[in-house]
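[SOLVED] Need 3D model of a two-part complex

Original post:
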Amino acid sequence: MMTAQEKSPRRSFKRQKRVKKWLTYLLMILLAIFFMFPIVFMLMSSIKNNEFQVVTDMSSLRAFLPIGDLGFQNYKDVFESQNFGHLMFNSVIIMLLTVITGLFVNSMIAYALARLRFKGKKFLLSTIISLIIIPFESVAIPLLVLVNHLPWFGGETSWLDSYQVQIIPFIADAFSIFLFYQFFIDIPKDLEEAALIDGASYFGIYWKIVLPLSKPIFATVAILQALNSWNRFMWPLMVTRGPDVRPLTVGIQSYFGQDPRLWGDLMAFASLITIPVLIIFLLFQKWFVRSVASTGIKG
Amino acid sequence: MAKQKNIKPTVPKYRRKESLTAWLFSTPAIILLVLFLIVPFVWAIWLSFTNQRLIPNPNLPTEFVGLRNYIRLFQDETFQRGLLNNFYFIAVVVPIQTSLALALAMLINQQLKGMNLFRTVYFAPVVTAMTVVSIVWTLLYNPGEGLINAFLQAISFGRLGPYNWLLDTKLVFPAIMLLSIWQGVGFQMVIYLAGLQEIPHALYEAAQVDGASGWQQFKHITLPQLRNTTIFVVLSTTIMAFKLFDQVQVMTNGGPQNASMTTMVYVVEMGWGQLKVGYASAISIVFFVIVLFVSLIQRYLTREKGSAA
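Solution:
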């Protein structure tokens, strides 16, 4: 401040601003290091072939550098001993089926609630909004008893160890319905009315007019549901006993529980789960951010 | 509407068709929500008054036991430890995570180059599965030569550590808190960012004309304008804290000596591990009542002022 006063006020103001700018960048870079270091560490450890080196490197910056005997041996191990491909298939199929059917089921009821006139609409809407409060965690145990006794088409008398038990309970989602409802209610009605007069069916209107206008909300709901499905852990842990229908999250946890812990393999496994999601996130970043921001309107 | 003359005779039939379509569109969601949310929820209440087991024992028929499960809860030290830990988690994580999220949002909301890149970096942990995060951090917390121990020793010139993070009853829960903040703060940051971008610029311009300092602008414009966002962030983080499960299950399974036990870990241990479905349902109901209470506070607080949001 003392030296600043001696110079022309304008120049000192400029300098102050520049110093502030660089301090901001410094702070942001330090924060970036905090958020990136575990991910960089995971990726670097995963390509170190020597299991001992993964652990001994941790006492220095070598942990973040590609040094030593590098290669994809850990990745090979995960594919061979842990049947990674199959676990990946399980996670992807569960996610896709949950998200795609969920988009239809939730948007259709939301369309009816936002657009059509029928008796009981207000009651239905307020029921669904109040269902948002019930967390899945509070019904998990009774649901476990329930799915244990549900029949399936092949004559099975229990849903345990199946794909459907990881998909069907998560298709309908009160919060997704609410997000769709809020979006549909703001679409201008003119187009639909014109289509109705032209003799279009309600399904035709939903399919040909409302759907194309609502791509943003479909993307939002799809991303939120996909992330939830991909990361889901507690429920698949309880309903899958073997590796047949198990998703990646339970697969890596079970591998983690085995002795001895092969950290190189574990880091490769962790990287294999993370890299595809990170790539998709980088490609559709705007949509991810928008989806998360939209959860803020809840309540 | 304009051509009412022509439509009039067909209105009742039209209406019936509309109503039928509406129910047809709603049926799949209603069936699924009833079967997988409402029925289990009501059943949880019923089960909590019984001694039902996951795999029924033919020698021990399920009985109605009244309030026995709930009375047992009050004497169950592990349950109390779990609930207490949830409150401990809230007391530490909610203030830190909320203020860090706001700080990050304000940092990347500046008109500087490269802000999108920083946003990407800060948000990346959010898309990383919690199971993966837990395993990576277990290695970071490795006793002895773990990276976090090495870092602490380096910055303290060897005075701090090494600690046995996940096996020390005092350190295990703070260790879990740190990685939870690391993984979750980006989510709240984005919600705050959306809130910041809705504040009218004119407010800041007016304040600058009046000669308000940066801190004054923050205190008198930013914070009050973000009131509803803050309520949302605080209470949704609180609810998430009550659901705390994945990281604890993977890293410590509630140990050592229940030092990292949480309500949900205990529910799963009782209901799925020990097959005591009745007792686990009673804990689930207590858990639900707490979450309901927090949600109602949120709805009350946000409704009070701006119903525009």
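Edit: Chain A is about 70% helix and 0% strand.
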